[in-house]
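Narrative summary of target 7.
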Amino acid sequence: MNAMLLRTGLALCLVPGLLFGLSLLLEHRAYLWDATVYRCAIEATLAHGDPYRFVGDCTDYFLPHTYPYAGTRLMAGLASLAGTTVLGYIYVLTYAAGCALFLYVAGRIGGSPQAVALLVLAPAAGVFVSELVSGNMGVPFYGALSWLIWRGAGGRPVAALGVAMAPFKPLYAAYLLLPFFQRREMLLPLAGAIAVAAWYGGDALLFPTHFADWLRTAVDHANEVPGFGFSILVRKSGLELQSGLSIVAAYAVWAAFVLVLTLRAVERAPTSMLRAFVAVAGVALLLPRLKEYDCLMLIPLALALWPTLDARERREWLGLVGGFAIVLPAVIWWLRKLALVGGASPATWRNLVDMRWLVQNQGAFLFAALLAALVWLAFRSRDVAKPA
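Modeled conformation, tokenized:
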């Protein structure tokens, strides 16, 4: 009976994610939408040098270009040499390779395609489905990062990846902290920070107008769509991200909390691969504007941790992380669909897959799950000196 109830509950949790993924891919054709932003910016850069004011068919595009001018100028230079069509094919191949790497590593760690499918489809009503087809550069980044960790690469390849990614997504320079969290090769974060500072220092000196345009656009967008993690705390306080010393002080407190939590959790992780994934989770929580795709790393973390847990710990882990990331959003989805069952709302496909509330709040569930995972790992009650 318990096994039947468990399977039924699991199926009910998977339904929202399956429907969400189908509606995105089949009805809305919502894939690689972030890539369109970069295409618009490259066209604008090639036309008149200002990627923050779209031209042509991109005038009314719903997402602004918030990527730094350093990376945009680099991509535009490649487009002028190879052509935008060739650059587009290169991007799609790179993106597909990054997604494939992520799923491949998750499959190898988990040893079960079913487990990977569950973790991709179920969390926060299938948000990971949308993130894997979004076109955002964060997805191939996490694919490459998870592959390096799985291969047991040292700090230098990880640091090189962080430096290479920084011109496109500056917050990912924070992943230079991974060697520090793992307490090895302490000079790598400093060397990486110098390299990233050179990227942006040169950009600010050589292209001050575009650098200022990027900062203004990025901050405005962050206040309109603040994301989750620390930024949701700022949003709930009624402050804005550019509010000065109060924000700096609040972030310093948050960063100190996450730092201590992560170091403690890393120390209590029983394997080197787990220590690396725990460090990734800590860095993600340090990002001022945590996004849904940053929580993708919950998947390899959960798969690597599971074999090391005893029965009691598995119940605790499922209660915390599974509750926040899977059960709670699925329950809310079903409750909001009771109107369809009762006939109070027309039982149409569009009403069934309408997930506006979850789309607006899915990151909060994943942020709660990521934070719960780190807290649980830091304060787990087992004898961590003996691997399971």
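DSSP finds 19 helices and no strands in the chain.
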